[in-house]
Amino acid sequence: MADSQYTFSKHIGASLIAGLLFSLAVGFIFNLKMIGINEGLHTFRYAYPFTLNFIPMYLILGLIFGLVLGVIGGIIIRSGSVNRKLGIMASYGISALTFLLVYLIIGEPVGVAAGMFLATLVFIAVHGLRPPLARLYFAVFFTSVLFNYSWQWVRQHFIVNPLLPLSNSNTMDIVFTIFWGLLILAAFRIFMKAFFKLPVKVFYSIGVVFLIVLTVVGGAYYLLAPQPGQAETVTDLQIERRSTDVKVVLIGIDGMWWKIIDPLLEQDRLPNLQNLIESGTSGFLETLFPTFSAAIWTSMTTGKSPEKHGVTAFLVWKFPWSGFTVPCFVTPKITAEMNWMRSDLVIEAPITNQFLDATPIWLMLSDQNVKVGTVNWWVSWPAHEVNGFVVTDHCLYNKSYIMQNYRDREGITAGDIYPFELLEELIQFAHGPEDVTESEIRRFLNVEDSTFIDEFKAIDTYDYLDIAYEASMLKYSYPEDVTFASAARYLIQTRQPEYFSVYLKGTDSMEHQYLKYYFEELHSDKLIPENVERYRDLIDNYYVYIDEVIGSLMEVADPNTIFMVVSDHGFDEIMLPTGHYNHMASPAGVFIAAGPGIHQNTKVNDAHVYDITPTILHVLGMPVADDFDGRVLEEIFTEDIPVSNIPTYETGRRASRRLIESDIDDNYKERLRALGYTN
């Protein structure tokens, strides 16, 4: 039976209750998904407060949609009486027109959700249906939520594909969306009687009570459960260092992959890597799952798992109402509403060493008066004060900032480099996108005329869905490697630290963007022929360039230097719908070590990213900590030198978990999206 009074206030009340119920349910479901896909939330101590902060964001959405829909519903459905009935085709037509108008006016992704809300309401109204309001709004929200997430999934898999040379992709998107919406409405009409016979009030009550009980029980466990144990620390670290006269240069090449290296070695195009392999030990370097660079490179320089060192994500979320902060950045791909939450509700910034719960190797060594230096390493900002120097990834060239703002040099802060006076020496090596020459472009790309050169120089933004900017990744990534490679060579030559590390990320960026052309025979039907010809040799050419960089560092290093070349992962041999290649299956990276005391032309087995720090410490005569997750790769050494141990290198430094924001944060997040890490 219809409500005796179809009042305006009842419309709003019923719609608000339906909106809150569905937003509570959807928020709870995606909260569980967020906990599952973000390493930083895998302990109850972080998952529970995250839940309490995350679900209210969906409740806000439910209130907004519920209020708006209740007002509009009160206008469209004025009474409980049936004035007229239109035919089914007319009902579909009016509903589709409503959807299209809202979709075009508001735009995606909010437009499709709002359009489906109103289209369903109009569909019910023109049908002459007047069910009790609780059931009416339950049906509207159920249909709209089902459509929204199913449409997002379909769009991700069938519409959003920048590789296809389609000039009408937007039209295709709109037509397919309308078709999908009508399909949902048709299914709704078939099961309409079942919708309006549901015991909605009972369903509301059970759902709300279940979530309240779950929250209360979780809270009780959160308060009563024992606190997680802190890492063992020492107040007075006493170390006896074994005498040694060797130095170590650690070169981190993001994404370097044996599958690309091996054919180039056969062609004699990588002479410096060939020299290191033949004069040293090499093999696969097992990595972490998932393959998040911030976590892996930090594990390399701490010898510990992400659970121990605390760097589990690229980004940190800070909720406005509680100040709760947690490393978190992966969101389900079908949740377009989270883009609004992340831009307007959550404060989001790149993770820094303020979240680092373990001591990096440059501090372990510096604390024992070993001269150290590191350039562009992950999670090195703000720079530590060390016996030597730290050039962070905020200094000289920050692609996250420059990708969209390269005409304006980023302001340097005191935390970007230590000692700050070193900046005056290094600024000469800053090589920006505007400095890339025609000869540099031609060494990587197959370009016959000068028209493309002019187009390349004119690029001033980055959008990975725009074919016109396919060259952007090269334009913004290559100068970063040039900058830090030049600075690294200068610092090795002039400072000669006992431990030196440099990180270069261009290889990874190139492979994400351009492996589709390297493997073009696998999907030639999806690639534009002109682009295939232009980019097919870029990956090989970039590896040749990186080989030259390695050679330039070897030229200026002390003869008694052990060189280690490592990568964090390889790549999966499959292209994603966006046209990117990725490394979601955790393919192994590269390990190469050569120099005094290293076995020549041998292979290493079972090497892991955790083993890099223990092995370097052993080389430099330092003991290995018992709380490391890695081991010394003793099999690579010609001498059998016993490994000495200490309980820990932790001296009480604890992560402040203080969120530090800067003017590069928005562009950093845009780069993660462009590489396919976020959506």
UniProtKB/TrEMBL annotation:
Lineage, broadest ranks: Bacteria, Pseudomonadati, Bacteria division LCP-89
SUPFAM superfamilies assigned: Alkaline phosphatase-like
Superkingdom of origin: Bacteria
Gene Ontology MF terms in the entry: hydrolase activity
Keywords: Membrane, Transmembrane, Transmembrane helix
Name of this protein: Sulfatase N-terminal domain-containing protein
Pfam families listed in its UniProt record: Phosphodiest
Keyword Transmembrane applies: yes
InterPro entries in the record: Alkaline_phosphatase_core_sf, Phosphodiest/P_Trfase
Keyword match Lyase: no
Transmembrane stretches, start-end: 12-35, 55-77, 89-106, 112-129, 136-154, 174-191, 203-224
